[in-house]
Design goal:
The complex is a heterodimer of chains A (50) and B (175).
Chain A lengths: L4 H16 L3 H26 L1
Chain B lengths: L2 H13 L6 E3 L1 H8 L8 E5 L2 E3 L2 E3 L4 H9 L4 E2 L2 E4 L2 E6 L3 H9 L2 E5 L2 E5 L2 H11 L2 H12 L5 H10 L3 H10 L5
Helix pairs in contact in B: 4-5, 5-6, 5-7
The chains are: A mainly alpha (50), B alpha+beta (175).
């Protein structure tokens, strides 16, 4: 387990900048995948609540 | 499920005169400039204008008829295109009109997509002022290549200085 919060934050910033620099076409594919995942979570929640 | 199908359809609608012009806004547009954030729908500003000598888009029926002919179903206030709900919006006031006018084409694997620029998206987020808008605005401020002078100019011209001062205070942005 990591507890060096400054390092964790700086690593996350590097990752964010890397993803921000991706071509738009690649980002659209990411949006497709993120939407599918969000819908899966939403549906799983609904089933759990029933 | 592919958002590119919906984006290609927007170009087709423009080419066929169903809409005068469009620009992608909100989360999908922001993802061109920033680390993409999950979103459930595609929001699009439409230009109210004249097509084939007749006023169009006063009534959105023509859009929905076009989409229905293409087999895209309605779901609430959205049209679903290849699994993506697409919401057509009138640009919010004069800021939205100017943002739409200054939108740019971006390449997505050979498909040209018209999107609102980062500086206008940031100003629209400032104007909207919801928590997710504030987070988006902060991300734009940290973005490499963000044109701060252009943003400041938009803020000044659209009387958003008070909203901006509140953000500066809330997020300790001074100095």
């Amino acid at each position: 387990m990591r507890n060096d919060w400054h390092k964790i934050e700086s690593d996350k910033n590097v990752l964010r900048k890397k993803r921000a620099a991706l071509p738009f076409g690649e980002k659209l594919r990411l949006l497709d995948r993120m939407r599918e995942r969000a819908l899966l979570f939403r549906n799983a929640k609904r089933i759990k609540q029933k | 499920m592919s958002i590119k199908t919906a984006l290609a359809l927007l170009n087709e609608m423009k080419a066929q005169g169903v809409i005068a012009d469009y620009a992608v806004c909100e989360a999908v547009a922001a993802s061109n400039y920033l680390d993409p954030v999950a979103t459930l729908d595609l929001d699009v500003f439409l230009k109210m204008g004249v097509g084939h000598g007749k006023p169009i888009l006063i009534d959105p029926t023509s859009i929905f008829e076009f989409l229905a002919k293409k087999g895209h179903e309605m779901e609430g206030g959205h049209v679903v295109v290849d699994g993506w709900p697409v919401q057509f919006l009138a640009p919010p006031e004069t800021l939205g009109d100017e943002a739409l006018k200054n939108a740019v084409y971006v390449d997505a694997d050979g498909l040209s997509v018209r999107i609102i620029t980062a500086e206008y998206l940031a100003a629209i987020a400032l104007q909207a002022g919801r928590m997710k808008d504030k987070l988006r605005l902060l991300s734009f401020l940290e973005m490499d290549g963000f044109d701060r002078a252009a943003f400041d100019d938009i803020v000044r011209r659209f009387n958003l200085s008070e909203s901006w001062e509140r953000i500066v205070e809330e997020f300790h942005l001074r100095g």
